[in-house]
Every structure is written in structure tokens, then in C-alpha cells.
Design brief:
Helix content is 46%, strand content 13%. By secondary structure, it is an alpha/beta fold. The radius of gyration is 19 Å and the shape is globular. α2 packs across α10 (232-244), α4 runs parallel beside α5 (115-143) and α5 (115-143) runs parallel beside α7. It has a single domain (12-200, 231-256), classed as NAD(P)-binding Rossmann-like Domain (Rossmann fold, 3-Layer(aba) Sandwich), CATH 3.40.50.720. A 7-stranded parallel beta sheet has the order 3-2-1-4-5-6-7, with helices on both faces. α3 links the parallel β2 (41-46) and β3.
């Protein structure tokens, strides 16, 4: 039987302090669970207080790290300031920031998006990353910590009916590289990861807007060479690697996609019998 010291020695982020935005469900939840499992103190936020407190209680019951939930609307600058201040007040430091909160609007052509639709999405998906990074960086510089940004594979390869979403994710990847350049002098690493089809509540909800949800789910699986969705825990494990072990990586954007971007396939929509808007 392993002793407590043996277990402790295998914890990859023991006593480090991480912030996860949008942490009550989906990929953010996966990050919270994986980091707590590896001994971290994780402050996570979301607008949904009920789910946030539920996850906080659940992971704290198993440890060996701990979590602390802070209600936060990342479209509000004062909420972001409070998130960072609450973290430092409780734990005295920040070692890792995972910018994850975001939204994928329903698929539709550019004609059906308004300028305000785009501005609101930019505020949620991009400006929130900018502000959380800005307010966390004075603390991350002290610990020579790191920032991890959740981008998306479609920011690289495009996606039908998602011009605004793809634009925000492309911006995140570009911002990651630029911030990595600026923060290298402080030994703060800034990286991104770009999920393909990862099974999340947002993905599940998105299928309900189509005439054949089951067909969309199968198509989502088949988009990956590995023939399945990724999991939120797999995304959490990648983030833990970037935070704990990838000490010579900065400015990179790692696809976690099951090979979705590889190989040729039927992409000529003029010849395809399927139409995503039907």
C-alpha cells in the first residue's frame, strides 16, 4: 500500500495555484478535475453559481488538491478583477491561468450575423482573455508562471456557418503568440491548445438545433481520424502538461483533435448533398 508521501511525490502540480475561467462545465471542468487530482489549488469561475458550488464540493471531497469557486461574468471587467484579487487573497499567489470561458453561436451564414452579435462574441471570447491575462500577469511574473489559452481547431481550418466564432479563435491564437513574445523577459510562458470535437454540454446542446441530432453526433465522431470525440479530461491533461512539464514551450498552439485536420475528404459544398443550414 502506497504511503501518503509516495502519493504526494507523484502529484504533478502540488500546491501550485491555478485559475480556470468557465470552469463549472465542459473543458474548464476537465481542467479543474485534473489539476485538483494533481494537488493544485484551483480557483475557478462561471456565471452559473449552482453548478460551480456543486463541482467545488465534489472535487474537494476527493482531493488531494482543492478548489474554490468564484461567481464571475467574464464580460464584466470588475468581475475579472475580483476573480484575480480573490485568488491572491485566498492563496497568496498565481502560478497558472487557464483562459477557457467562451461560446460558440449557432451555425448560420454571415448574412444572419449582426455587428452587435460579433461585438458581443469578441467581448466574451477574446476581450475576456485579454483582461484576465492583464490582471493576472503581475502575479504570474512573480512566480514565473504560465498562461494557457483555449483556442479551437476551427480557428486554424475554418468551419461552415461560424465566421464570427472562427475569427475570435484565430484572434486568441495570435494573441497567444504576441503575449509569449512580450512575457518571455519575465519567464512567463504563454501557450494555447486548440480542441477539435470534444464532447461537452455545449457540443451536445448544439446538436439539438439540427433536424438529425444523432446524425450530427456520428458526423462529429467521424470528423476525427480516431473516430471518437475527445474528452474534457484529455484537455485537462494537456493543460497540466503545458503548466507542469512543458517548461521549454512558449507561443505554441497545440491541436487536440484526434487528427481532424489531416487527410483529404469531401469538402466541395457545391457537390455535397448535405447542407448544414437545412
Amino acid at each position: 500500500m502506497a504511503s501518503s508521501s509516495d502519493v504526494s511525490s507523484h502529484l504533478r502540480y502540488k500546491d501550485k495555484v491555478a485559475i480556470v475561467t468557465g470552469g463549472s462545465k465542459g473543458i474548464g471542468e476537465g481542467c479543474v478535475r485534473v489539476f485538483v487530482k494533481n494537488g493544485a489549488k484551483v480557483v475557478f469561475c462561471a456565471r452559473d453559481a449552482a453548478n460551480g458550488h456543486k463541482l467545488e464540493s465534489e472535487v474537494n471531497a476527493t482531493g488531494p488538491g482543492e478548489s474554490y469557486f468564484v461567481p464571475c461574468d467574464v464580460t464584466k471587467e470588475e468581475d475579472i478583477k475580483n476573480l484575480v484579487d480573490s485568488t491572491v487573497k485566498k492563496y497568496g499567489r498565481i502560478d497558472c491561468l487557464i483562459n477557457n470561458a467562451g461560446y460558440h453561436p449557432p451555425h448560420k451564414p454571415i448574412d444572419d450575423f449582426s455587428a452587435d452579435d460579433f461585438r458581443d462574441l469578441l467581448n466574451l471570447n477574446v476581450v475576456s482573455y485579454f483582461l484576465t491575462s492583464k490582471y493576472a500577469l503581475p502575479h504570474l511574473r512573480k512566480t514565473e508562471g504560465n498562461i494557457i489559452n483555449d483556442s479551437s481547431l476551427v480557428g486554424m481550418i475554418g468551419q461552415v456557418g461560424a465566421v464570427t466564432y472562427c475569427a475570435t479563435k484565430g484572434a486568441i491564437s495570435a494573441m497567444t503568440r504576441a503575449l509569449a513574445v512580450d512575457e518571455a523577459c519575465h519567464n512567463v510562458r504563454v501557450n494555447a491548445f486548440s480542441p477539435g470535437n470534444v464532447w461537452t454540454p455545449m457540443w451536445e446542446a448544439g446538436t439539438k438545433g439540427f433536424a438529425n441530432p444523432e446524425g450530427m453526433i456520428e458526423a462529429g465522431k467521424d470528423a476525427q481520424l480516431l473516430g471518437r470525440f475527445g474528452t474534457i479530461e484529455e484537455c485537462g491533461e494537456l493543460c497540466l502538461y503545458l503548466a507542469a512539464e512543458a517548461t521549454f514551450l512558449t507561443g505554441v498552439d497545440i491541436p487536440i483533435s484526434g487528427g481532424a485536420e489531416l487527410n483529404y475528404g469531401m469538402k466541395n459544398r457545391r457537390k455535397s448533398k448535405s447542407n448544414i443550414y437545412d
